[in-house]
């Protein structure tokens, strides 16, 4: 009894442990960027990526050939390599980093040996023989992963049980987690995956699917057993020692990481399921996986110990490996003119060096060199910009506009400042300090609009005005009709009777939307929107105010006066806007709309939990306009001028549309300001669209802002567009500081910009809060892009073109593949995989205090998942943190290039652009 | 005007040849160039078809080439015919292909296989038009094969992964098996009547007619994914979305049905075959509907939905309702194309629908459930989960035994003439 329960403990522990290796992505409808290797964050970055590559079979860095071609184009220079090699740098090593010293690989060995007769070349032959003689035999054990039943069957009989098990298991998982796509929901799924499957398969009298034997009896036998018991039972049959549970469970789960990961996510956080609650359990998944493997392996099972016996292939591999090594050492020696008769010490050193600097280590160093060049290209110009001087925020701004810190808004801010030099811009995390559970008038349910680490304590519901109540009723009624019609065609066209009717009657008329959608997506989309707004009248709405004692799902409805003031003051304080507010202060949330894009939510605001941040902006503005709140602000260190009016808005980063909320309540005194603001925002939209269009090949020829705007609008509506926008692609830097220090600098949409003024934050409380919120969010985005780029097929989800939406929870590749997590190639294709460079305008000691105040940020920094630099607020000098030491960075020697407008710098160029100074922003 | 008919087919085929030659000779074509050339080809076909449209009211256009070869009495010429039946499907084909071209120029943008995709699309265009306006079975066979091979290559478009290649192989095997029907039918028709025309069949006896008709039915089953050859269709959803739309939503999937429509005179001589078609259609429809109920992914659901509708079209053909079948065929191809192209927006669509419905979407599948006892429901669900047993039956009763027999032969052979296994040795 005691034994059994301890085995179960062991099992659960092993499962939990392995589960950490599964992807953390939840259902795709709400996509939140996060560090793909989150579970390795306790390790140093380089160690972590290498360790993970062993476990997942992934690439830790770019391929060496990628770095070598970057060297050819000067993106990495030899000086960078020396910096990255640090104390190890020497001529032998420099030569070793030249690919010409290493012509041999496992795959071209035959070609070189048999066809090129490489080992017979006079300058190679003797060196090769000698090197081969001196090379110690390879003793490395095959990679430490334990083998599964599948590996053993595959080796002995040559058939892959995974190929039999996976399709059925995927179908079961898809049906089980389905949120409403299948016509028949899986029977008994409330009981969990194991029980539902057990009932299904033990029902008797049915044929086994191809490749399986005895499914019925197997599932009949486990009736009433818990998932853990089933797993233990199978393990006992296979004689798996308790100590090997973990090493066996891990590869079993990683055989289908996407599905296993989703089930784990839904088990840990059931509220992630968008429409229907799922009684998910990873143990169920494992139990079924093992049972199906048993049924697919027939009589070939033997025992765990037998599977682990080494295969013969290994020794053959080592033989070749040795030939490659000796051949490369010989080449290196020939290039360095080292003679055959060198003393033993020279030979030993050569062998140790080449062995130490193997493929992974070289790529590690090349990557560091690559990042070093990036840092130099950013930090040098950044401090030079300060020296060159001439840019500052306007003294008496006509308007102040808050954007999200998102790097996509960098170009929007610049465009706005170019269009209207008297406008001041700020960057703050896009939920603007208002964490809220919000339900819009058109929404069926509420959702949390705040960073994923925050749990909202307040709920706000959008209501129609009482006077518009009747319009609202009509709207909701009509929406229901529309939904019913949509449902009939959506699901109906696949069923038999309704489907036939729909086909016969609606078939040919669908030519109209088909042609329109494909040929003129933008025009058609706008037409539909127009029809929609005619058909569905919009009532004027307001945000629900405080209902004390009234709760919504256990949350307080609305904010108290104190809470409102805290939030308004907190956000303005952190951004450094504590006095001299302009007549208009605009808060712009952001999000992204695109059709035909399962990853749509990945373009939304990460700080709003993968949702659209217009809500938070609107709410903030309403709070800040409240006269009672204004009275409480001075006590919190913020003075808002009496003639200031806050307006909330929403910027769509895909169509570049800007919506302003609650315009009707803007006082008449501010009408002119509002009109000017709108004019400037329109110029901003077009300017931003033009800059975005430079990256789109399909947009060449769009050289005027207005045509570019039409182009990006089209993209948002286009069914055929796999890249409605490039999202966070190319992100690389995060600058926390005053806008004055970056204003007028062309940052190429690659820098997150967080407004912060060290002068008003002597106790670094604001900085601590800012880094605590922005650090993990930006690092999460940056690292997800890093991994999805360096190994798009395994860390990312590959090309979008064959993606197939499944269960409304994710995408598969075509028919029944693993659930694909991470980012698609089309989202990352122009990315530069460098770790985030966090530049903070604060004294090093203050910055360090702020970092160490937050354990999460500390871990990111000390384990080098982000790079950190401090910019002195007074002198503008930059120091880079490296393992506890702050190294000075020299400002660029030469003045930065100066152009009149951003367009002059980027038009006609598609690559990443260096920094430049933009005259008109002055 | 009849000379326009060969141009309809030749235009996309020449584009295929041009693109292929340029590719092989190492000329790097820009994406815009590839699309432009493809558009020109389709435009030429469209213009020719439109010029021939008036003949729809006068009974169609026929084209005879000069004799290709003569052997004694026997002579062979290439015949094309834009019959009343073929007019609308052909026009629809060029229209849909034009849309797919336009769509793909953006969708496939920057993919390594851009040229490969358009190469295959052109080959397919030429093939499907040949099937539609081939005047005799032997001409149609050429188109039939082009459709098949381009379909196979596009399923395996992402050739670096295993699944697409396996799916393509499966489709290929199915196509080839069923093509035997068409091939033998052509040989027999030549033998019975001296040519492969489907109109010139008055000389056939009713047994001969039934034999040829059954062979044509066999041929049609593969392309149209009818029972028992339907297992490949969901597995073919591996290519880029627009190729799935063009092949399995719009055109290729209807090729089998079209072949049977064309063989109307033959079918009239063989009522038994008509009943076979009705039964196959019915079984396919039931199987597809049943399996589609348990699938939770967008593309399989669409593929199975298409399969069910084509099953119904088969029933209509079997019952002799040709006009309805033709209407059904055209309507279905348009609707399904749109649905395939919109498949990636399923999430977006569902979300807005869910919100509009006020957060409550009525559960589906309740309608019949009330009449079915629970244990039967479970059984049905499991059959649905197993894809209506198509593959299971195929493996159990056909492939399994076949493999067993082959294995026995192999073992016997090894015993009689043992082969020395050569170990992995190097150096």
Question: Can you tell me about this structure?
Answer:
The complex is a heterodimer of chains A (922) and B (427). Chain A has 922 residues and is α/β, with parallel strands linked by helices. Chain A contains 34 helices and 22 strands. In chain A, the strands form five sheets. In chain A, strands 3, 4, 5, 6, 7 and 8 form a six-stranded mixed sheet that branches. In chain A, strands 13-12-17-18-19-20 form a six-stranded mixed sheet. In chain A, helix 30 crosses helix 32. Chain A starts with a helix and ends with a strand. By secondary structure, chain B is mainly alpha-helical. Chain B has one domain. In chain B, 70% of the residues lie in helices and 5% in strands. Chain B has 17 helices and two strands. A two-stranded antiparallel ribbon of chain B has the order 1-2. In chain B, helix 3 packs antiparallel against helix 9. The longest helix of chain B is centred in the middle third of the chain and has 32 residues, at 162-193. The radius of gyration of chain B is 23 Å and the shape is globular. The termini of chain B are far apart. Residues 422-427 of chain B have low confidence and may be disordered. Classes of the chains: A alpha/beta (922), B mainly alpha (427). Chains A and B meet through helix 9, helix 10, helix 17, helix 21 and helix 22 of A and helix 3, helix 6, helix 12, helix 13 and helix 14 of B.
What is the spatial order of strands in the main beta sheet of chain B?
1-2
Helices of chain A, by number, come to: 34
Biggest interface between chains? A-B, 99 and 99 residues
- Major β-sheet of chain A, in short? 6 strands, mixed
Which spans of chain B have pLDDT < 50 for at least 5 consecutive residues? Answer: 422-427
